[in-house]
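TL;DR need structure tokens for one chain.
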Amino acid sequence: MKCGALLLLSSLLFTSFIVVEAFTSRTQQQSTRTHFVSEAEATASNASLFVNKCSDSDPSSQSEGNSNMTDSDTMLFGRFKILASQIFHKTEHSFALVNLRPLVPGHVLVVSNRIAPLMDDLHDHEYDDLWKTVRKVQRALKAKYNCDAFNVAVQDGESAGQSVPHVHIHILPRYRGDLERNDDIYDQLEMWAPREEDSQKKKRLEVPDDSERKDRTIQEMAEEASIYKSLMNQ
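>> reply
TL;DR here they are.
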């Protein structure tokens, strides 16, 4: 009888050990699986954060359709955020804004939506849209200021005086006799920048007076035109 009881007790203890061992093993597996899931979620979260940071730091790397949309209230002009209240016209590929430091009343900018440094970086449809927007803005400014002329200027690259590496076109209403020397507007445009400290860094282009410039011969101009013609046909 005692032997039977001992055998039964041993059997129960052995069974309990197996159950405890199985439970412990299962718990460890679940813990390990939970750890792996947490690591995977953390990795995915970090990757998403990294992608967002890359997009924020380099807007030009984003897709064309939303490359310049920072949020519902702003657009980017290079690294500058432009408030919606400063933008008076938008198209699919361009926007027009009032100027922080206008040279004359009505001096505005037309900017490509996508951040691209040079005109040649624009796609054909972006390029066409940009210049159609310029014409539309000119008509609006003419109705507002009753001007009889415009300066429409592009500084296509840093060496040409471009202060913001983002395609933009200056539109300035003009009147007969509004400047003592008409070409002064080009000097002012050359030194224009969104901020005073940026303007002070720019170097003025030294252009000789008209009296110092000599006409070229017809032959010299024909030779130059021939060179450009061959380039255009390539």
